Amino acid sequence: MYFGTVDQFYALMSPPDSLWPTNRLRLGAIPQPARTVGTSSSAVDVRGNAHGSYTVLVECVAEGQVNSSAAVNPGALPTFRISLDGGATWSRAFRVSADDDTARLTDELTGLQCGLIFEFTGSFDVGDRWGTTAEPSPDVVLQLEVAASKVRGALSDTFRVPLTSTPASVIEVQGWLARWALIAKCGLDGQRDMQIYNPQRPMGIAGGISAAAQLDKWRAGEDIGEFERADEGAKRFTDVVKPTPYMASYLPI
């Protein structure tokens, strides 16, 4: 199991439009949305690559009709609110795009940064509601699990694992390693990915330590002030034998 959540990974490690093209990753499962309220002549679809595990609800809060290429739209475009947690919290209301035949709501329009695209066709009444679920890419989940195993391997020389609690720095280091693996899987682009995102590069904006070097420090029992004291006490041999840099076999020199 990985540290933190997929949402945290995207929030910490990826620009809003993501570093890796969706068509180069396997898509997470998103069943066809089911109407739960209303009888209007309309439909909603949800697609994309979710940035977390969501219970999605889409509800019309202002009636309207999606523009049609075959006729002049007789009224206002419909407005919707979105919940990603089964209705516990809701976004503010958003008016759909003015595209003909199929209107959309995207992260660019809503600012939700959930990785999902919502599509609408037909005429909608107030209260119309659809529901579905959305899961993140299995490729993202797998790379987080691989990165977490490397982090746990480094921590196990100093700490009892699993940890009692997870410092934010552990989630950050795991994210650097998983992000690099996903970039390598999808292919480097021409935007300096190698220089910017390599785990041997300092993580801080103004310099500092790299993800790979941080793993080696934890492995040697250094820089551990933010960990729970109860987690310390693993049997260590580093006082006798200097540990080999943990990521040496995984990363380019």
Q: What would you note in describing this structure?
A:
This protein is of the alpha+beta class. The protein folds into 2 domains: 1-26 and 137-253, no CATH class; 29-134, no CATH class. The protein has 6 helices and 9 strands. It has helices spanning 6-13, 107-110, 138-155, 168-186, 193-197, 211-219, and strands spanning 34-37, 42-48, 54-62, 64-65, 79-83, 94-95, 103-105, 116-124, 129-134. The strands form 2 sheets. A 5-stranded antiparallel sheet has the order 1-9-3-5-6, with no helix packed on it. α3 crosses α4, α3 runs parallel beside α6 (211-219) and α4 (168-186) packs across α6 (211-219). Residues 235-244 and 249-253 have low confidence and may be disordered.
Mean pLDDT: 82
Strand content: 15-25%
- Oligomeric assembly: single chain
Number of domains: 2
How many distinct beta strands? 9
Whole-angstrom Rg: 23 Å
Tell me the distance between the termini. Answer: 28 Å
Major sheet characteristics: 5 strands, antiparallel
Structural class category: alpha+beta
Query: Could you spell the SSE succession in H and E letters?
Result: HEEEEEEEHEEHHHH
Q: What ranges have pLDDT less than 50 throughout 5 or more consecutive residues?
A: 235-244, 249-253
What is the number of helical segments per DSSP (H or I, 4+ residues)?
6
Q: Which term fits the overall shape? A: elongated
Tell me the strand order in the biggest sheet.
1-9-3-5-6
Task: Work out the helicity level.
Answer: 10-25%
